[in-house]
C-alpha cells in the first residue's frame, strides 16, 4: 500500500494508489486482500517441499521467495487459527482450494470459483489453510478476501457462515468479459447476499462486490451508481481506465455518479469493483476486533486470547482435510452440502 496520489484531471478518477497484496478500502468496507501464489507440486502432507519451507519466515511469511508465501502456515500455506469479531469476511477462491475449520464445529473445503461468506458479529475463531492437492503439477492459488463492517446494532449478534458454490453465484457475460457478482446487481442480474444481518443485504445501501474477468482488448463500461463510495482494483496486469493506462496493483477511487470505461491491455486479468453507502459510525478497531470503543475492543481482545484454544475442538490449529477430499461443507449439526458440478481437476 502507499499514499494516495490525487488525480490531475476532472474525470471520474479521484485518487490513485498502489494496491498489491493488501487493499485500502472505503466505508462500509474495512480492508481487502488479494493473494496470488504459485505453489509447487504438493507432497503427501499437501505442502511445499521442506527444503523450501525451512528457508522461509516460519509463521509470518509474506515474502514471495520461490514464488509463493506461507502466510502464518508452517507446513501447509494459509492462515492458522485466528479470530474475527464485529465484521464480515467474504472470500472468493478463483484458483486453488481452502480448507476451513472453525470454533463452532463447522468444516469444509471450497475452491475454484466458490465463495464463503462469514458474518462474525460475535467472537469467532477459524483456520483457513491452502492445501496443495495436486502432486503431479503446480498448485496456483488466487484468493480475494473482502471485509465489510457491521453497524453497531449488529455487533455481538450470532455468527452466520455460508459456503456458496460456483454454480450458484450470479454472473453476467459480455464481449470479452465476465462479471461475477458477490453482492449487488448488473444488467438485471442480482446477487443473493446469504445473511440478512449484512449491510450488503439491504439494496438501499447500494453495496456491490463485483469481479470482472477480462480478456486482452475487452472493454467494460461501468455505469453511474447511487453508491456513496466506489473503488476499482487492477490486479495482475495493467488496464486502461477512463483513457489512462495504469499498472498492475493499482487502486482507483472513483466518482460513483460518473460513467467509467475499463479496457484490458495485453494480458487477461481480474478487475474488482467495491462500492456502497458508508455505515458512517464512529467505531474502534484493534487486531481482529471492530467494536464501539476502546474499552470494548480491549476487553474483546483479552477474551480472544483467553478463549482461543479453549474453544478449539480440532486436533491442530492448522487443520486440513485429508488428501483426496473433494469440495464440501459440513455444519456442526452434521448437515452437509456439496456442489452439483463435479470436481474439475483444474
Give a structural overview.
- By secondary structure, this protein is mainly β.
- The protein folds into two domains: about 1-20 and about 170-280, Jelly Rolls, CATH 2.60.120; about 30-170 and about 285-310, Jelly Rolls, CATH 2.60.120.10.
- It has two helices and 28 strands.
- It has helices at about 50-55, 295-305; strands spanning about 5, 15-20, 20-25, 30-40, 80-85, 85-95, 95-100, 105-110, 115-120, 125-130, 140-150, 160-165, 170-175, 175-185, 185, 190, 210-215, 220, 230-235, 240, 245, 250-255, 260-265, 270-275, 285, 290, 330, 335.
- The strands form six sheets. Strands 1-2-22-19-24-17-14-13 form an eight-stranded antiparallel beta sheet, with no helix packed on it. A six-stranded antiparallel beta sheet has the order 3-4-11-6-9-12, with no helix packed on it.
- A hairpin with a 2-residue loop joins strand 20 (about 240) and strand 21 (about 245).
- The longest helix has 14 residues, at about 295-305.
- The protein is globular and about 55 Å long.
- The two termini are about 30 Å apart.
* Helical fraction: under 10%
Spatial order of the strands forming the largest sheet: 1-2-22-19-24-17-14-13
Number of strands: 28
Shape descriptor: globular
**CATH homology group of the largest domain:** Jelly Rolls
* CATH topology term of the largest domain: Jelly Rolls
In the CATH hierarchy, the architecture of the largest domain is Sandwich
Count of helical regions: 2
End-to-end distance: 32 Å
Provide the residue-averaged pLDDT: 95
Query: What is the chain-wise order of helices and strands?
Result: EEEEHEEEEEEEEEEEEEEEEEEEEEEHEE
CATH class of the largest domain: Mainly Beta
Low-confidence stretches: none
Strand content: 35-45%
Number of domains: 2
What does the radius of gyration come to?
Answer: 20 Å
- Please outline the major beta sheet: 8 strands, antiparallel
Amino acid at each position: 500500500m502507499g499514499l494516495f496520489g490525487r488525480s490531475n484531471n476532472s474525470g471520474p478518477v479521484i485518487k490513485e494508489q498502489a494496491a498489491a497484496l493488501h487493499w485500502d478500502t472505503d466505508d462500509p468496507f474495512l480492508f481487502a486482500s488479494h493473494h496470488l501464489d504459485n505453489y509447487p507440486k504438493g507432497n503427501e502432507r499437501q505442502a511445499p517441499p521442506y527444503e523450501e519451507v525451512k528457508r522461509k519466515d516460519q509463521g509470518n511469511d509474506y515474502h514471495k521467495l520461490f514464488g509463493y508465501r506461507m502466510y502464518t502456515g508452517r507446513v501447509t500455506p494459509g492462515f492458522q487459527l485466528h479470530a474475527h469479531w464485529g465484521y464480515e469476511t467474504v472470500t472468493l477462491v478463483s484458483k486453488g482450494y481452502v480448507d476451513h475449520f472453525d470454533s463452532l464445529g463447522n468444516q469444509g473445503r471450497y475452491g475454484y470459483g466458490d465463495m464463503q461468506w462469514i458474518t462474525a458479529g460475535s467472537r469467532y475463531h477459524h483456520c483457513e489453510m491452502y492445501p496443495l492437492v495436486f502432486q503431479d503439477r503446480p498448485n496456483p492459488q488466487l484468493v480475494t478476501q473482502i471485509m465489510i463492517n457491521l453497524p453497531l446494532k449488529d455487533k455481538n449478534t450470532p455468527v452466520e457462515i455460508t459456503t456458496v458454490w460456483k454454480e450458484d453465484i450470479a454472473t453476467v457475460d459480455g464481449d470479452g468479459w465476465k462479471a461475477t457478482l458477490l453482492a449487488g446487481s448488473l444488467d438485471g442480474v442480482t446477487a443473493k447476499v446469504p445473511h440478512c444481518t449484512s449491510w450488503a443485504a439491504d439494496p438501499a445501501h447500494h453495496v456491490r462486490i463485483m469481479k470482472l474477468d477480462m480478456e486482452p482488448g475487452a472493454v467494460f463500461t461501468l455505469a453511474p451508481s447511487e453508491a456513496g463510495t466506489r473503488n476499482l482494483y487492477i490486479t495482475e496486469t495493467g488496464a486502461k481506465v477512463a483513457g489512462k493506462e495504469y499498472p498492475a496493483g493499482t487502486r482507483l477511487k472513483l466518482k460513483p455518479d460518473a460513467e467509467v470505461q475499463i479496457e484490458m491491455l495485453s494480458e487477461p486479468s481480474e478487475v474488482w469493483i467495491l462500492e456502497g453507502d458508508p455505515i458512517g459510525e464512529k467505531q474502534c478497531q484493534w487486531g481482529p476486533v471492530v467494536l464501539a470503543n476502546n474499552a470494548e475492543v480491549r476487553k474483546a481482545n483479552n477474551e480472544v486470547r483467553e478463549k482461543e484454544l479453549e474453544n478449539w475442538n480440532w486436533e491442530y490449529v492448522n487443520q486440513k482435510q485429508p488428501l483426496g477430499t473433494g469440495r464440501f461443507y459440513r455444519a456442526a449439526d452434521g448437515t452437509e452440502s456439496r456442489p452439483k458440478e463435479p470436481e474439475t481437476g483444474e
